[in-house]
Amino acid sequence: MTAQRFTKQGQVQLSETFLVLFIIIILLFLGLFLYSKFFFQSIEGRANTLSEQDSTVFLSKVTGLAELRCSDKPCLDTAKFLPFQALVQQQRIIYTSLLGTQKISVEELYPQHTSSTSCTPSLYLQPAYPGSCSKWILYEQKPSTVRSTQVLSTVVSLYYPEQDLYTLGRLTLEVYR
Amino acid sequence: MKRGQMEMVGLLVIVILLLVLGVIFLKFLVAPASTTLADSRSSLESTRLLQALVLTTIQGKSFQEYAVACSGDSTACTVLRQEIGTIFTLLLKKGQKYSFYLIYNDQNILRLEQCTLGVVSSYPFTAIGGFYEVQLRLCS
To answer: Could you tell me how far CA B120 lies from the centroid of its own chain?
Structure first.
């Protein structure tokens, strides 16, 4: 009778121990899960910050490209835009290694335009130029699959040497990842 | 150790574990987002804007010509004030508050003030022998 009572008590104690161990293991796993979740989130955040820093530096690099910038002032020479487009087509391998997978475009914002037509060599030759168009896609190279796109832009001064005129525009960088 | 005491210790261990988990969770939850990069970008952006603005041709005249005229006669600032308002509306984010100052010989000759707190950028330039400075404050 006494031996049977002790066996039952032992079984209850064993169940209690297992229950406590089970709860502790669940809590530990929960802790590990939360920690790893936040850890990966912080890594992702750091990666985004670094890539934004990288793109910001690259944006400055683009405004300083000899193929695009004015010779003596901090501006972009619009007369160089169409030749640059042609140059990129001719020497795609060189520019792809230099600029990577992204889209570089410029849009004139001041004076305001009623439509945002892309500038082409035929529009450039029209007497209405520069009023006839306001957008240039200077470079575009898309990867086979685009996971995400990071967009960065900066205000630039646009120079029209034909009219000796400075306007304001926005240089946009769309980095494909 | 008696059975009751052992159970108390077990309970204490679970409570401590829960507390540690809670602290880790709170630490990650309330960690403030870094604003350094955003502030640097904002400052860089406004400096570039000012640099570009000083070169801009406004209604056939350069910004610098307007600045010179404005320093001599305040009525000449009207067109410049109007056009700068338009430029900032077009170039800045929608709803972005700003304050713009054109300074000549330490005197504010043109002021467009919408806010008082924010990152300030300035760009000095010379025009017809005088020292000028444009300042832009972007407020959050």
So the answer is: 6
Is the model's pLDDT at B35 over the cut of 70? no
* 8 Å CB contact between B71 and B130: yes
**Domain span including residue A112:** 64-176
Task: Judge if ipTM > 0.95.
Answer: no
Could A74 and B49 be called an inter-chain contact, meaning their C-beta atoms sit closer than 8 Å?
A: no
**Phi, psi angle pair for A135, to nearest 5°:** -135, 140
Q: How many domains does chain A have?
A: 1
**Residue numbers in A near B41 (CB within 8 A):** 52, 56
Domain assignment present for A105: yes
Question: Is residue A53 in a domain?
Answer: no
Write the pLDDT tens digit of every residue in A55-86.
788 888 888 899 999 998 999 999 999 999 99
Distance from CA of A112 to the nearest CA of B (A): 8
| B97-104 vs B130-139, strand pairing mode | antiparallel
Q: What residue ranges do the domains of chain B occupy?
A: 56-139
pLDDT attached to residue B112? 94
Shortest Cα distance, chain A CAs vs residue B78, angstroms: 18
For residue B114, the distance in angstroms to the closest alpha carbon of chain A comes to 21
CA B79 to chain centre: 26
User: What residues of A are in contact with residue B91 (Cβ under 8 Å)?
Assistant: 109-110, 155, 168, 170
A127-141, B26-40, B86-100: least confidently modelled range:
B26-40
